[in-house]
Amino acid sequence: MEAGGHACTGALAGAVSSSTVGALTGADLGVAGTAVGALLGAGAALLPDLDADGATAYRSGGRVTALVGECFQFLARTTYGKTRLPHDPRGDGEHRGLVHTPIFAASLGLLVGLGALLTPWVTGIAMIMVLAPGISALSRSGPRWVRRRLCTDQDPVALLAAGAITWSLAVAGAMAELGWFAGLSITMGMVVHSVGDSATRSGICWTFPIRRRCAKCSRKSGARCSGARWRRGHVLPKSMRWSVGSRGGKRIERTIELICLILVAVLLIPDAAELARTLG
Ligand SMILES: [Zn+2]
Ligand SMILES: [Zn+2]
User: Fold this and answer.
1) Which residues surround ligand 1, an ion (CB under 5 A)?
2) What is the mean pLDDT of residues 94-115?
3) How many domains does the structure of the chain reveal?
4) What is the CA angle 207-218-103, rounded to 5?
5) Number of the ligand closest to the Cα of 211
6) What is the DSSP letter of 166?
7) Which range has the worst mean pLDDT, 7-11, 12-16, 27-31, 86-90?
8) How far is 21 from 15, CA to CA, in rounded Å?
9) Is 273 helix (H, G, I), strand (E, B) or coil?
10) Contact 147, 153 (CB under 8 A)
């Protein structure tokens, strides 16, 4: 799946989860809560592609995010080299490897949540790094007037907007409680990304580090398999998967983007109406 599809599915997941958190805990997050939830979800759903040079998240923050991307890629290559079994595919295991696994998503979310206990700076920096690619990718998928009026599809403008949102949350004193929410949003968005990639032909490895039979040997019953740890899985039957970048694939992803954006808008309406009532 390409950046637009990831950002829009992530935004929907983020908007739904922050509305749910608001409803369950009784915390009155309001329209800002749902909107920030959607932006965080969108950005988090772009993070796994930090393992590919030039992806939206990789270049969103210039050298800083590129450096994070290089660290992730190094981690992915080393882990692959140390854990691969005889029937795992050749290659370096960098793209759609470790950084796309659920265990990595959970660990990164946990690290951000724990880091927030040390200092609110961890939350602040994580928020900016997640919000910036989310804002630029959503602006590219959304209506054209957003691009024309706000220019938030451009990386430096998106970075500024991410900084402004984070700063206003810090000024409002919300940073202290946002640590776990940010961590959870990161894990959830990254898993949504992996679901998106698993709907396409490429798939991702869901079960790392569990040792399994490889895909080839499982088709032949009774064949001895020397094991695979990086076997990729899918969420759709073979006939429904599309190939990323193909004409048909682009059409499917564009439809997914539109549906998600409309649903996010629908989720924002009641909160926005409530805000208008209190202001008016
Ligand atoms: Zn991906
Ligand atoms: Zn095998």
Assistant:
1) 48-49, 197
2) 95
3) 1
4) 5
5) 2
6) H
7) 27-31
8) 10
9) helix
10) yes
CA of residue 86 to ligand 2 center, whole Å: 8
Q: Check: CB of residue 182 under 8 Å from CB of residue 40.
A: yes
Task: Return the residue matching tokens 């983007």.
Answer: 257
| C-alpha distance across the termini of the chain, in Å | 43
Question: Which residues contact residue 142 at a Cβ distance below 8 angstroms, ignoring those fewer than 6 apart?
Answer: 261
Q: How many angstroms is it from 131 CA to the middle of ligand 1? A: 18
Residues 35 and 272 sit within 8 Å (Cβ to Cβ)? no
Question: In whole angstroms, what is the distance from residue 142 CA to residue 75 CA?
Answer: 34
Can you tell me the mean pLDDT for 185-213? 94
Taking the CA of 220 as reference, the closest ligand is 2
DSSP 3-state assignment of 34? Answer: helix
Helix (H) or strand (E) holding 242: none
Query: Pick from 110, 78, 113, 114: which is nearest to 97 by CA?
Result: 78
User: Closest Cα to residue 183, out of 66, 105, 280?
Assistant: 105
Residue-number span of the structural domain to which 61 is assigned:
3-279
- Of the candidates 256, 266, 208, which has an alpha carbon nearest to the alpha carbon of residue 233? 208
Centroid of ligand 2 to alpha carbon of 98 (angstroms): 20
